[in-house]
Amino acid sequence: MNHPEPRRPPGASTSVVLDAIRRTGTISRVGLTRATGLTGATVSTVVRRLLDDDLVVEIGRAESTGGKPRTLLELNQSARYAVGAHLDHSGITYAVTNLAGAPVARMTRPGPATTEPAQVLERMAREIDLLITGIGVDRSKVLGLGLVSPGPLTSTNGMNPTPPSMRSWEDFPLDTELERLTGLPVLLDNDATASAIGEYWSGGTSGETTFAALYMGTGIGAGFLLDGVAYRGASGNAGEIGHTSLNIDGPVCWCGMRGCVEVLAGPAAVVDAAWADPRVARAAGLDRLPDGASIAMQFAAIARSSRNGVVGARQILERSARYLAVAAHTVVNLLDVRLLVLTGASFAAASHIYVPAVRELLEQSFFARTSHAVDVRLSHAADTAPAIGGAAMVLQSELVPQRTAPLTTLDHAGSVRSELGSLSH
Ligand SMILES: [Zn+2]
């Protein structure tokens, strides 16, 4: 395999300009000075460099009110690519995205089952190679690989403590091994945070730079972006909303707490409840699924039967949704966000139950509801969000690594929004 040449990370002003171009879609140089607060001279220099690096292209001219028409700039979407891989017990999903975070290829392969981690990673390296070759992308344009796992993450970059379905992965050095096998720089993050970054990078937040993503795949978590920057906590484990307790006398959860949202109402609890009711189990076809069918597969079957009008299946999901709505309520009360994105394969499968349940509870009881509403929406790529997010993580870390300065970014966001309006992008 050819290893891509190491790249110089962009400087702070380059990051700011590139991010403004990405967020607005199309923008003029004058617009960039307004959106970034940089001087015209700096913007000119940075744009020249971005054009030379082929990261940005000029795309004709905007109408002008008098004066000289302005040349518009946009991202050169096919200038760079990134790979995301979501490693979950239920399957391994890959995505390749272009520079704008839009997926250009997706692929799902069987999960690790009982195979040893080392062999699974070798298979993943082969599959990633096939995926890149298959779409004919020049390998030197691939910035890296974002590896997303259910977490929790530790400083050794393994998973510890480990979700019950992935015990053999405890403390395995996922990132260094995959880096060696693929020759690509590897970043590691948990599924909820990666999904949030993917949503932001691919434009799913409509320009909102502070928002939360509530994730439900096999487990439940939350990812936060604050002023466009992911909040990861001290060890990359922020947002474990699935492990907040709703009943301190409830059943013991694998994390050590009692009565967690996940143990009371997560996908595994839904599957258990369906098996406990023979009519629902039969109607959902749980007994006809292959042996060892993952929790995610069984959950999806229950969701399908609910959509098909099986009342028992619907009731089980509605009970779960009441708990998930409380988790959403907690997230929104903590962060006071205007936007909550529901994402992950299980929300995608049963969105008809969970989206209205979350909306209803927030409308009734979100603390700051008299100040502003909360827009609750299902991710447009909820099914494959972690893989797309993995790729977006790489794009963000390579191209806008130094975006901080939260106070001034607020002003930038305002200017960017007005630029959006004037160009009716
Ligand atoms: Zn727990």
Automatic annotation (TrEMBL):
Transferase as UniProt keyword: yes
Keywords from the named record: Kinase, Transferase
Pfam family membership, one: ROK
Superkingdom of source: Bacteria
GO MF: kinase activity
Protein family membership: Belongs to the ROK (NagC/XylR) family.
Protein's recorded name: Putative NBD/HSP70 family sugar kinase
